[in-house]
Amino acid sequence: MSRPLDDVVVIDLTRLFCASLGATFLADFGARVLRLEPLPLAPREGGGEGVWNHDADLIHRNKESIALDVQSEQGRALLHALVAKADVVLTDWTAPELEALGIDYPAASVLRPDIVFGRLSGFGPLGPDSELPPIDELAAARTGMMPILPQPGQPPVYTGAGAMHSSVMLAFGVVTALLHRAVSGEGQAVDVSLFGANMYGAALDLQAFLAIGKGDRLLNPISRLDVSNPMSGALYPSADGRWVTLTMPDTDRWWPMFSAAVGIAEDDPRFDTHDKRTETHRLELIHALEAAFVTQPGKHWRQVFSEKGMSADIIERFDYPASDPQALINRYIVELEHPSFGAVKSLGFPIFMSEGTARLDALAPCSGQHTSQIMRDLLGYSEDDIHACRSAGVVA
Amino acid sequence: MTRALDGIRVIDLTVWFQGPVAAQYLADFGADVIKVERPQGGDQARGVRSIKSLEIGDWNQYFLVINRNKKSMALDLKTEGGREIMYRLVAESDVFLSNLAPAMLDAWGLSYDKLKEIKPDIIYATNTGYGRLGGVTKPSFDMTVQALTGIMARLGEPGEPPIYLGMGSGDAYGGIMSALGIALALYQRKRTGRGQCLDASLYGAQLFLAAPFLQSYLAGDSSAALQQSRKQVDNPLWNLYPTTGKWVYLCEPNEDARWAALCRAFGDTQLAADARFADAAGRRQHNEALIEVIEAHCLRHDHTGLMAAFEREGLVASPVNNLADVIRDEQAWRNNYFMKTFCEEVQREVEVRGLPISLSKTPGEIRSLGPQLGQDTELVMMELLGYEWDEIEALKAKGAIP
């Protein structure tokens, strides 16, 4: 079966979960992703003896591995030869590191003039903080959302979602650059940062503050008992402690069925217009809903919401998606047969494509599993040359 | 200027946030994006001010930013005339994108099978709520879907309510996921000449918003699903600490040299000699006590003083800023993460979220903010679709267009 990126070779020089995952998205959709593991090998994170390395089997699936001593002269020559054969370099290495190895974008584009060079940094390629390390917590702390996510009086909250934005942005930027290359023959540099990605994760609140330039409600946490629309973005505890959440911003549309479900008269004069519900009697409605939801368990509310087709649900933990048939049938979570650990579940594929179904051809490779093969197929080395490189410790 | 997606035409039949933001990414890189809206009121996001869920300034920043660089056509797809115009538009387009319910698209004669008859290599992209298979069709808004993924329940201190990741956070993620799918399909079509249908659902995307934690849970670590207190993290050197000013995020590995640097930053030689914290295992084992000690030290400073002490010792940390800080952050402006553009609604330059993905030779750009409802209907019909003026008048009379 054909897949979108069947003709694309990617060199994966990544360390971070999010950058590696960006390369995985390309591999899932057909790209031949060659993951370079520098010698000497660092101890692998996660896993260990007898423990499934579940991270690696997500962020390095469908990739090939080549282990290479990039500090040696011969190793560097190999690296340059690899770049010359690649369509895409995808990296989260620092600018000085890449420059020292002779594979920053200007140097890489000499080796391969139409290379698409995708790089993830901490804070963007320009500006005074362009050299800060790519740590998502630092970027999230700078983005301004952490103080307003929790309830008042609680510590700031780090979500990790910004890093996940960066994975997809990196993949999208690279494919967009490949589209341009297909028309023009021209490669280019693609830059994404954890800072920028966090800012897009914070889309609406950040844009609101940018537009308004002030506002306590955008600078300080809002209590769940003080939300601006009691029927949208609100959280209420149910009888068994499970939380109910509502997203029915257009309260006029929902009020007749919603009021009946929570046992408030539809024509209750305190709440019979949108303005009363969201302005004049807002706090009163929040308290009325607080009192209503706590009378029944979460299961009851889910059933009510479901019967009436209301935009509301119960807040779940990971056990829900882990056993959700909807997640399995759409391959968002997949069951796979691991050679050492048997049947396991893993995150699958967030995008469905009818003509280019995402693949799961292989789990994470062992370090250097494909070194010989890549040297032979892609770089044209003879068996003797490969053997010599191995003996000299240039490759493994 | 050369644009990466020059010559790509996209029909954007989307509302609210996820779909529009997907099309925004394509429009920023030069695709000709035509937003198709119902004549009465258009995209519901045009009326976001009245729903009171989000602060809106004197211009509708919700709608105008994610619909920038687009045209707008007002078509009543419930009429035969409206559908006929849509079909002629499909014949001239490369991508059809919608986040409306599949049943509604079918009812309006806009299924993939139908559009493929008109334009065999069309790329037909949807944003369903919960995936194309499995039959779940309940309403899907950012927060109700986020609720199901488990991501909210694991955030915050134990016993506190679950935490929403911010207005539109999951929609924005679904949007970039959808844009990625469309770009992949366009690339494949260049090689094979074939179109396809694709779906990036809100649920499917959001399951990846907490990928490292959900993957751990799937591998058997049940604690990954639960709220974790900052007073109990394994590595006290990688943690949030209060000061008399802002909180500070310290991001250091649990290594002896980094610990020594932290003790120097606090000027505390006794602490450096404390046997409990002498090595990584000890610091992990006595994590709660160590967090209290570090917290007490941090609370002797405001964030400026603490950051200065940290910087002297080369410790990696950041103050936890708020939105007022980030909009003045030079780094954000230098990298075009924020940009200025003219806003017709208020007739002045306004500040908007810019371009988080930079392409060195074909950079994105902001040519205009979101269009007025139907502003391009007639022009597109005449110039692109070849309608004569009397045909347009007739379609108006039949209510297909306003």
What is the structure about, briefly put?
The complex is a heterodimer of chains A (396) and B (402). In chain A, 41% of the residues lie in helices and 16% in strands. Chain A has 396 residues and is an alpha/beta fold.
Total helical elements of chain A: 18
Strand order of the largest sheet of chain B: 3-2-1-4-5-6
Domain count of chain B, please report it. 2
N-to-C terminal Cα separation of chain B, in Å?
35 Å
So what's the CATH class of the largest domain in chain B? Alpha Beta
What's the CATH H-level homologous superfamily of the largest domain in chain B? Crotonobetainyl-coa:carnitine coa-transferase, domain 1
InterPro entries (chain A): CoA-transferase_III (IPR050509), CoA-Trfase_fam_III (IPR003673), CoA-Trfase_III_dom3_sf (IPR044855), CoA-Trfase_III_dom_1_sf (IPR023606)
Pfam families (chain A): CoA_transf_3 (PF02515)
GO molecular function (chain A): catalytic activity
Would you write up a description of this structure?
The complex is a heterodimer of chains A (396) and B (402). Chain A is built from 18 helices and twelve strands. With 396 residues, chain A is α/β, with parallel strands linked by helices. Chain A folds into two domains: 9-201 and 326-391, 3-Layer(aba) Sandwich (Rossmann fold); 224-237 and 243-314. Chain A has a six-stranded parallel sheet with strand order 3-2-1-4-5-6, with helices on both faces. In chain A, strands 7-8-9 form a three-stranded antiparallel sheet, with helices on one face. Chain B has 402 residues and is α/β, with parallel strands linked by helices. Chain B is 40% helix and 14% strand. Chain B has helices at 18-28, 48-51, 61-66, 80-91, 102-107, 112-118, 142-149, 169-192, 202-206, 211-218, 256-266, 269-273, 280-285, 287-298, 303-312, 323-326, 330-334, 377-384, 389-397, and strands at residues 9-13, 32-37, 70-74, 95-98, 123-126, 196-200, 238-241, 248-251, 317-319, 338-343, 348-353, 357-359. In chain B, strand 10 (338-343) and strand 11 form a beta hairpin. Chain B is elongated. At the A-B interface, helix 1, helix 6, helix 7, strand 6 and helix 8 of A face helix 2, helix 3, helix 7, helix 8 and strand 6 of B. Strand 12 of chain A pairs antiparallel with strand 6 of chain B, so a sheet runs across the interface. Chain A: InterPro entries: CoA-transferase_III, CoA-Trfase_fam_III, CoA-Trfase_III_dom3_sf, CoA-Trfase_III_dom_1_sf. Chain A: GO terms for molecular function: catalytic activity.
